[in-house]
Design goal:
about 5% helix, lipopolysaccharide transport protein A fold, 10-stranded antiparallel beta sheet, mainly beta
Length: about 160
């Protein structure tokens, strides 16, 4: 029975989590109070009301770590905050973007996966999904949530407007 609910949740959320493909063609902009860049280790640390944007993608936190590969291409962003926030427009016709918040948000640029941990929550125009850890894949729409008896996974779906 629980498996059926999970499949229903995936079916409802999956079409709504795809990122706009043209976001990848936009420049990455980072605004912060402070930055420490270590070129030898291909890492940068930004602190103080950090805002990362690329197209419709937004990542916010008090601390954001950026890792690049040897060619200088972004591999991961890790944002930490009380909470850290993430948002991304799914389709040009959407009125509201997908919004996520958690204590830590890791966005893997190579795999297009976002992992939200610590009081994680994802909100779309018509549903809210929360739990200790939520992972979703922007390219496939697959959503995975992890919980336990003491920290459960929850979903609230709004009725369809007629």
């Amino acid at each position: 029975m629980a498996k059926r609910y999970f499949i229903a949740i995936i079916w409802l959320i999956a079409p709504s989590v795809f990122a706009l493909p043209e976001d990848r063609d936009q420049p990455i902009e980072i605004a912060a109070d402070n930055a420490v860049i270590n070129e030898k280790q291909n890492q940068a640390e930004y602190t103080g009301a950090v805002l990362v944007t690329q197209g419709t993608l937004k990542l916010e936190g008090e601390l954001v770590n950026l890792k690049t590969n040897e060619a200088g291409e972004v591999e991961t962003f890790v944002s930490k905050g009380q909470p850290a926030r993430f948002e991304n427009l799914r389709r040009k016709t959407d009125k509201e973007p997908v919004r996520g918040r958690a204590l830590t948000i890791e966005y893997s640029y190579d795999t297009d996966q976002v992992v939200l941990t610590g009081d994680a929550e994802i909100t779309t125009e018509d549903s809210e999904f929360s739990g200790p850890e939520i992972t979703y894949d922007l390219s496939t729409g697959e959503v995975t949530a992890s919980g336990s008896r003491s920290k459960r996974v929850n979903m609230t779906m709004q009725p369809k407007k007629k």
